[in-house]
Amino acid sequence: MAMAGVRQGASLWCPQPCQRNQLRSSLRQGTQGVCPRVSHFATVNCAANADLSKEYVIVGGGNAAGYAVRAFTEHGVEGSKICIVAKEKVPPYERPALTKAYLFPLDKSPARLPGFHTCVGIGKPRQTDEWYKEKGIEVLYDVAVTGLDVSAKTLSTSSGSSIQYNNLIIATGATAARLPKAIGGALQGVQYIRDVADADALVEALQKCKKLVVIGGGYIGMEVAAAATAWSIDTTMVFPEPHIMPRLFTPSIAEKYEELFRNKGVKFNKGVTVKEIVSKDGEKVSAVELSDGTVLDADTVVVGIGAKPAVGPFLESGLRMAEGGIEVDGLFRTSTPNIWAIGDVATFPLKIYNRTTRVEHVDHARKSAQHCVDSLLQVQQDPYDYLPYFYSRIFEHPGSERKVWWQFYGDNVGDVVEVGDFSPKYAAFWIQSGTLKGVFLESGSPEEFGAVAKLARQQPKLDAKKLQGASSVEHAISISLEATS
Ligand SMILES: Cc1cc2nc3c(=O)[nH]c(=O)nc-3n(C[C@H](O)[C@H](O)[C@H](O)COP(=O)(O)OP(=O)(O)OC[C@H]3O[C@@H](n4cnc5c(N)ncnc54)[C@H](O)[C@@H]3O)c2cc1C
């Protein structure tokens, strides 16, 4: 089915027949464990002066890149055919850890690399540097792609070298949105968090921090503020909306979490924006001035105000863009043959709701990588059919008496029925025109989380009044499950 906003003309979306044959033949070679060094490049449009030529080049060494490589190796494609070009200095890792166990106080066993390289997030082997070396996969660390020439099939890089690809997967993710320099967004002590280098800088700051201001009430802000309580740091959260996690939480869900934060000493300044991040010495942050005139003293400020897709190197390439990201079809093919895009940077057809979107969550990064590689290698050709899923975990450090782990599946549209006492369980069901659209669950068991995923996928007809009468979260889930049969 063609999705609104994504044009699926066969001439643009489909690789040329000869390219398909090359893919098949390279897959056969890989499956047999025979990986001739780029001999097939004689058949493609080579850039005469490329410093490196690869069958499969993945740009971006993040979550999606790690899972894409795993998918290639599971199909027997490895060795010198594959190359990752990574801006970071370490192999791909599970990025969500950076604002969770990475921020535990130093005496509470914080997570550190190599503990959370991909693909431990789904219980698969850790892909350390040694793993890539054993597989013969080249990872170019600390190298940023700076441009793409689609007709020559080459990438230019920050190191000055160029890389030629036969198939290119773009997995550059997103970058943390920043506050303008003019209002103090680049002062010393103002932290943004996207990669492990940022997390290291934040850990260093937390060790000395006395007063922390967290700007942004989304999941990054909540996770950083929760971590700061484990360090016993005086913490204030600031955001323009009326409550935390405004894009998902209802006011009553938010109130429950805010109460938890308050019990741990976190203060809130809601409904305000930042006028200026102030510095007494012109270098280091000393306070945050808010739009209502309040001035909050601070030696560290963490800004968690969203992210922007990392499309910079591709803007002039001719790749079609949509909603700020790189437009792909249900097989993750861009508008240019032999180029795919996955993870946070890809704008894809969300089949279940018949709309196009970008998703900045790790589950999608993993699944889009798998789906893309399966499609690229022609293992399958079904369009991606993703069920939106998001989670957050806070207060999980050793010794914490109340650990928080919520998951959300589906679409938060329609009216909401909330069930539970939050000690610790709580659930919310979004119902639109009598159809269940989305489910939020706090502190569920693995079976219950599985059940709510099934509910959001199946979207049963549901009587809101019956659900309102549920005596417990378990009861509400069982009422909803009955509606699926
Ligand atoms: C701190 C934090 C916590 C998170 N917590 C959660 C969570 O709890 N739950 C959840 O569902 N999601 C969470 N996310 C979101 C999740 O991590 C992302 O959706 C996921 O990492 C996206 O994977 P990706 O590969 O598309 O991008 P990324 O993992 O960001 O990887 C992109 C990589 O590309 C590199 N790159 C960028 N440009 C270039 C270039 N020009 N050349 C070479 N390399 C380049 C980047 O350096 C980066 O390493 C979190 C994200 C962050 C930052």
TrEMBL record:
Monodehydroascorbate reductase 3-like C-terminal domain location = 387-466
Fetch the SUPFAM superfamilies from UniProt.
FAD/NAD(P)-binding domain (SSF51905), FAD/NAD-linked reductases, dimerisation (C-terminal) domain (SSF55424)
EC number(s) stated in the UniProt entry for this protein: 1.6.5.4
Q: Which cofactor(s) does the record list?
A: FAD
Task: Please provide, in alphabetical order, the Gene Ontology terms of the cellular component aspect for this entry.
Answer: cytoplasm
Q: What's one GO MF term for it?
A: monodehydroascorbate reductase (NADH) activity
The protein's superkingdom reads Eukaryota
Instruction: Give residue ranges for domain FAD/NAD(P)-binding.
Output: 55-369
Which UniProt key words apply to this protein?
Answer: FAD, Flavoprotein, NAD, Oxidoreductase, Redox-active center
Q: Which family does it belong to?
A: Belongs to the FAD-dependent oxidoreductase family.
Q: What is this protein called?
A: monodehydroascorbate reductase (NADH)
* Organism of derivation: Adiantum capillus-veneris (Maidenhair fern)
